[in-house]
């Protein structure tokens, strides 16, 4: 909490400072001794609380005048250059000043309190006000009212997926000693020369749990307006190709359900899952990119050497599970339950669930995973780097070229 104390009397200033230090969590208190020095502080800085003596000298070292504090209030409200403090408390030992100023104080929403060295009423009132401000600021830190950055990118693998994110323009390393994650920052330039702030990080391991916890941590720390996960997935359709870009219209945990046992001892799994949908406004934009296959040739040509075929943008359901899949029978079983599944992977449901449960303001979330295998006996790592590249590059093209995004 930033406090400006305008008080020319050293003994009174010490008592006020003691009250503020007891009431708030390490307040930063700036003291001024006159109208002039106080106004200079108000012109240069923002303060959460102004504690103002009503009898002040105009300049440091001069005699105090009875309207010195009133001049400060007038300059704050009627002047051109002062930053108005969030809260103003006026202290005076003169009841006559309170009587003459109380109507003006009420009109300007300013508190005026009688200061009496032999009474604790003034200190109790000031302490209560400081505690209110301190508590409100603590709540604001936990639940901020606005976004801090434009875009956060989360991946599940530092080796492949994050590597290709960091090859996008402008990324630099930033490590915080109080945090187990490495964050990387960049600024991307959109059409119209508008810059957007970007951070990226990788979850410490694969899977929904790590992805959900990492996503929650990123939201709480950075408060992004958009949050995206990129990476690799197993394709589920015969016409899909390596590098095709799968975007989650919705996602669910295909391992969610109930296992029962028959009288003969056979285990039966009955699925019971909940799908989480992409934000409708973001989904509308993504549908156009799928319909018109925007920027796919740009993505193709960015790989060296370029692949003969452009990757395709495919929107559908991503099914998340706890294990790497190398079973065509399992893929068939999942498709029998949901024909709109376009890919299998391990994190999307955790990411979107974390966003759904985040405090406001919640980011708009998108999961983009490119095909690196088909979850069958031929599964290998040959196409992982290319798939990681196409998903990463799609994000860059989308967020720098899509003009209808709200920043």
Characterise the protein shown here.
There is one protein chain. By secondary structure, this protein is of the alpha/beta class. It folds into two domains: 2-142, Rossmann fold; 149-401, Nucleoside phosphorylase domain (Rossmann fold), CATH 3.40.50. Helix content is 36%, strand content 27%. The chain contains twelve helices and 17 strands. It has helices at 10-23, 35-44, 68-78, 95-107, 121-142, 161-166, 208-222, 280-292, 296-301, 328-337, 348-356, 384-401, and strands spanning 2-6, 28-32, 49-53, 87-92, 111-114, 149-155, 172-175, 182-189, 195-202, 224-235, 245-253, 257-261, 267-271, 276-277, 313-320, 341-345, 364-373. The strands form three sheets. A five-stranded parallel β-sheet has the order 2-1-3-4-5, with helices on both faces. Strands 10-16-15-11-17 form a five-stranded mixed barrel, surrounded by five helices. Strands 12-13 form a two-stranded antiparallel sheet. A hairpin with a 5-residue loop joins strand 12 and strand 13 (267-271). Helix 1 crosses helix 5 and helix 2 (35-44) packs parallel to helix 3 (68-78). The two termini are 29 Å apart. The model has no long low-confidence stretch (mean pLDDT 90).
């Amino acid at each position: 909490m930033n406090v400006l104390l305008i008080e020319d009397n050293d003994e009174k200033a010490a008592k006020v400072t003691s009250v503020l230090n007891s009431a708030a969590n390490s307040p930063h208190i700036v003291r001024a001794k006159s109208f002039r020095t106080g106004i200079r502080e108000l012109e240069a800085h923002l303060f959460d609380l102004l504690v103002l003596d009503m009898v002040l000298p105009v300049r440091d070292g001069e005699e105090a005048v009875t309207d010195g504090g009133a001049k400060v209030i007038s300059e704050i409200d009627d002047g051109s250059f002062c930053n108005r403090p969030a809260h103003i408390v006026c202290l005076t030992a003169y009841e006559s000043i309170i009587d003459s100023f109380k109507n003006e104080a009420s009109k300007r929403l300013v508190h005026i309190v009688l200061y009496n060295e032999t009474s604790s009423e003034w200190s109790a009132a000031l302490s209560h006000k400081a505690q209110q401000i301190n508590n409100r600021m603590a709540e604001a830190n936990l639940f901020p009212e606005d976004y801090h950055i434009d875009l956060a990118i989360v991946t599940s693998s530092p080796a492949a997926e994050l590597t290709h994110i960091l090859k996008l323009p402008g990324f630099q390393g930033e490590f915080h000693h109080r945090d187990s994650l490495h964050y990387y920052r960049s600024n991307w330039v959109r059409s119209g020369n508008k810059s957007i702030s970007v951070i990226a990080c990788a979850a410490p391991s694969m899977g929904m749990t790590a992805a959900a916890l990492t996503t929650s941590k990123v939201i709480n720390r950075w408060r992004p307006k958009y949050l995206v996960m990129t990476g690799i997935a197993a394709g589920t359709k015969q016409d899909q190709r390596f590098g095709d870009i799968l975007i989650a219209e919705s996602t669910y945990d295909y391992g969610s359900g109930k296992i029962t046992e028959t009288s003969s001892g056979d285990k039966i799994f009955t699925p019971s899952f909940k799908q989480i949908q992409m934000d409708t406004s973001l989904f509308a934009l993504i549908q156009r990119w799928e319909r018109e296959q925007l920027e796919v040739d740009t993505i193709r040509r960015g790989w060296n050497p370029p692949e003969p075929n452009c990757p395709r943008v495919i929107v559908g359901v991503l099914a998340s599970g706890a294990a790497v899949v190398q079973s065509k029978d399992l893929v068939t079983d999942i498709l029998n339950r949901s024909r709109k599944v376009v890919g299998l992977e391990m994190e999307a449901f955790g990411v979107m669930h974390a966003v759904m449960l985040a405090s406001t303001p919640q980011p708009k979330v998108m999961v983009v995973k490119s095909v690196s295998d088909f979850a069958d006996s031929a599964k290998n790592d040959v196409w992982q780097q290319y798939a990681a590249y196409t998903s990463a590059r799609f994000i860059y093209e989308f967020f720098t070229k899509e003009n209808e995004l709200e920043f």
